[in-house]
Specification:
The complex is a heterodimer of chains A (367) and B (385). Chain A has ten helices and 15 strands. Chain A is of the alpha+beta class. In chain A, a hairpin with a 2-residue loop joins strand 9 and strand 10. Chain B is of the alpha+beta class and 385 residues long. Classes of the chains: A alpha+beta (367), B alpha+beta (385). Chains A and B meet through helix 4, helix 7 and strand 8 of A and helix 3, helix 5, helix 8 and strand 7 of B.
Chain lengths: 367, 385
């Protein structure tokens, strides 16, 4: 789901070595290197900024804050981090580090020192400034550069067991956030005050990033931007939280008229869930939901019917009728039905695709 | 409930946007430009300008947003995702809003439909535009794209009434947040819980975002993102409290000690407070940033800490509008002018105490510097235990 990023993430930004011990990182790196060998890559450059950093977190447990940074994966040794603010060794898993390239030969020298020659993969650079990409290409003219986004996606789209633990932790965090939202509503607070309480609840439990979209009668979903004294008859909210780098989301709705609409949304989620199996196309899941929703399908489709989540809140595959992606075991999928208008409703289901169907991690809908 | 009165659909913003567009058009005319393009990637950093927000009043969610400003015809605001159209129409006075899932493709169509391919085009933030969006720009227009950054900075460097009102509101929230920090921090509290409470507080007062960095230690080496460290008696809690109101950020830098600080700590902090006053005395129109920084560094060196000067910036501009005068470093020759806003912070590592933070948001006026924080001279704060 596309949401409004904050200017900086601030929360429990730590490398939780109890959950992700060094051997976890070693196994992840092995998986990436295996994929690199399959593609004939001698090295891999991974771009990140303060918002787009899934692959960097996967490789190093580091959450970059600045405009851009690069992680280098060579054929041996730990990943190297190049950034403006280099993390301390206690906070991330990496070997060498340095400043972001000035592109005066420094990047090429570092690659040489790491033994990287020949073919180099680039991942995450769709988010990079074009000017940075130009300078990188100029400096690395001696290398054969090739896109490596699909390589990283192939490695990361199926969540590892410890990653699933983090997603479950994020889901439990959101349960508390949803409860705080409900309590604030019940206490008579305004729409936005209640949403602020929900965010606070998630952050107190360690969420480092919290995203909110909400709708009141007559309006579309939008981010929480301004405080208003208004308390609407109905309120629908989409809440998402990042905990230790992993995302979960949940929809919550309040107000008259949401019960019936909520039932229809729940039916659609059930219909989608029955198709949520490894080997099934994402399009099939989406079509099942749309078929169930009937005339509500157009509204729901505007906001999207869901997508894979994990290190990204807006990961592939997207559940869309034209998607060609195929679902795989150990993917976590967020399914959602978001209806705006006179009676807004946000209904969601977070589910893990297991060996024998879907395991529901978190349901959300009318309170 | 917050007393922040300003929302994107207020007439004040409309007037501000119209004035900005008119001024930018004057600059376009002087450069012979037919069209100006303003781009945002949806990655918001208060250390860089959000050009789309400045020109349209709209803060995009990304992944792309573009304002197309022809020299004569009304501007067009391209936004994504498609369901964000209502918010764009409510927030921005620009009437022609195109909401799409693919902004670069929408730009290509617009250029073709309005026959702008041979227009002389200027662009802001060329060095930050993502590769896919830049490809759409270069393929849509036949003439080479020219940078409009200097002209934009000339217009935006001097804050308008709307921005100043927002800055004052944000400064009030920052001051209140620091008081709340002192009342809330407690021994045994994880840093991230304190941060959560500060974010809650500032948002409840009307802030829409907060660039909050906070660190605690008996001896900090620098400020950093919060961790799960537990606050302890004797800790120095250093913070950059940076709330934004409708996109205008304001920053205060503070240091608090958990429990009664040692006299030497107060003495050390007073050095930085004195350096801040020295910097403020030079924060006058006509002075360069470098001269202002020199006053700060000179005061710190004069106190015997010259060996600990590292050339770190002594402050910076405050976006999401203009970030002129940029990083406050020794070599910055930008001349201060009335209407510029920045944070001035002689934060400094001192051997006896570690890194201390001391800084104020400043508005340069005709009559000298105006500190936007209500707090006068700074001293070491205390978290009671």
């Amino acid at each position: 789901m596309i949401t409004m990023p904050g200017v900086v993430t601030h929360g429990r930004l730590v490398w939780d070595q109890a959950l992700f011990p060094p051997d976890e990182q070693e196994q992840r790196l092995d998986a990436v290197r295996s994929a690199m060998r399959g593609e004939g890559l001698d090295g891999l450059l991974v771009f990140a900024d303060g918002v787009h950093h899934a692959d960097t977190v996967y490789l190093t447990q580091w959450f970059p804050m600045e405009l851009w940074s690069v992680v280098i994966v060579s054929g041996s040794g730990l990943p190297s981090i190049l950034s403006q603010l280099v993390p301390t060794p206690a906070r991330a898993w990496f070997g060498t580090s340095g400043r972001i390239p000035a592109f005066d030969g420094d990047l090429a020298r570092m690659l040489g020192q790491l033994g990287v020659r020949g073919q180099l993969g680039l991942a995450g650079f769709e988010y990079a400034p074009g000017a940075v990409l130009d300078r990188l290409r100029d400096e690395l003219a001696a290398y054969r550069l090739q896109p490596a986004d699909e390589l990283m996606r192939a490695v990361t789209r199926r969540l590892r067991p410890r990653e699933l633990s983090a997603v479950r932790l994020a889901a439990r965090t959101l349960e508390q956030a949803a409860a705080a939202l409900a309590a604030s509503r019940g206490g008579g607070q305004s729409d936005t005050a209640a949403l602020v309480e929900a965010e606070a609840a998630a952050r107190r439990l360690g969420a480092s990033d919290v995203r909110i979209l909400y709708a009141t009668p007559g309006g579309a979903y939008g981010p929480l931007e301004r405080q208003r004294d208004r308390r609407s008859d109905a309120l629908a909210a989409y809440l998402a939280a990042e905990v230790l780098g992993y995302w979960a989301d949940v929809g919550v709705s309040f107000g008259p008229g949401t019960a019936d609409l909520g039932m229809r949304c729940s039916d659609a989620l059930e219909a989608m869930t029955t198709h949520l199996r490894a080997g099934v196309r994402a399009a099939e899941v989406a079509r099942a939901g749309l078929a169930s929703l009937g005339e509500l399908g157009a509204t729901a489709a505007r906001y999207g019917l869901g997508n894979a989540v994990g290190l990204s809140l807006d990961g592939r595959p997207h559940l869309a009728p034209d998607s060609r992606d195929v679902l795989e075991q150990d993917m976590v999928v967020s399914m959602r039905v978001m209806i705006d208008g006179a009676a807004p409703v946000a209904a969601t289901r977070l589910a893990l695709i297991g060996g024998h169907g879907a395991e529901v991690l978190l349901d959300g809908g009318p309170a | 409930m917050s007393d922040v009165p300003l929302a994107g659909d207020e007439p004040v913003l409309q007037v501000a946007v119209q004035r900005r567009i008119a001024e930018l058009r004057r600059r376009m005319a002087s450069e012979g430009a037919d069209v100006a393009l303003f781009y945002s990637s949806g990655v918001h950093t208060f250390l860089l300008v959000d050009h789309v927000r400045y020109v349209s009043g709209f803060k995009c969610m990304g992944p792309d947003a573009i304002v197309v400003l022809p020299k004569d015809n009304p501007p067009t605001l391209l936004v994504s995702p498609v369901w964000d159209e209502d918010r764009a129409r409510r927030q921005s006075p620009i009437e022609d809003v195109v909401a799409t899932q693919d902004v670069p493709a929408a730009l290509r169509r617009l250029v073709e439909e309005r026959r702008l391919a041979t227009a002389a085009v200027v662009v802001t933030g060329l060095d930050r535009i993502t590769a896919p969006a830049r490809e759409a720009l270069t393929e849509s227009f036949r003439l080479p794209l020219r940078s409009f950054d200097s002209s934009f900075d000339e217009v935006a460097a001097i804050r308008d009434h709307y921005e100043l009102a927002l800055a004052r509101a944000a400064a009030r929230i920052a001051d209140e947040a620091n008081e709340h920090l002192l009342a809330t921090a407690a021994v045994g509290m994880p840093e991230y819980v304190l941060a959560a409470e500060l974010v809650r507080f500032t948002k409840s007062r009307g802030a829409d975002d907060n660039f909050l960095l906070l660190a605690s230690s008996q001896h900090n080496r620098g400020v950093r993102p919060v961790s799960d460290r537990l606050l302890d008696r004797g800790d120095f809690v250093i913070s950059e409290l940076t709330p934004s109101v409708c996109g205008q950020f304001v920053q205060i830098n503070r240091t608090a000690v958990v429990g009664e600080p040692a006299p030497q700590a107060r003495g050390a902090y007073d050095v930085l407070a004195g350096a801040l006053e020295a910097g403020l005395s030079r924060a006058v129109a006509g002075t360069t940033v470098g001269e202002m920084v020199g006053a700060i560094d000179g005061m710190i060196a004069g106190a015997g800490y010259g060996g600990h000067l590292t050339g770190r910036r002594r402050g910076h501009g405050l976006g999401l509008g203009s970030v002129v005068p940029g990083d406050l470093v020794a070599g910055n020759d930008t001349v201060l002018r009335p209407g510029m806003i920045f944070t001035l912070h002689p934060n400094q590592y001192l051997p006896a105490t570690g890194y201390l933070m001391c800084g104020q948001p400043v508005l340069v006026t005709e009559r000298g510097p105006e500190v936007l924080s209500a707090r006068g001279s700074l001293s070491l704060d205390v978290v009671p235990v």
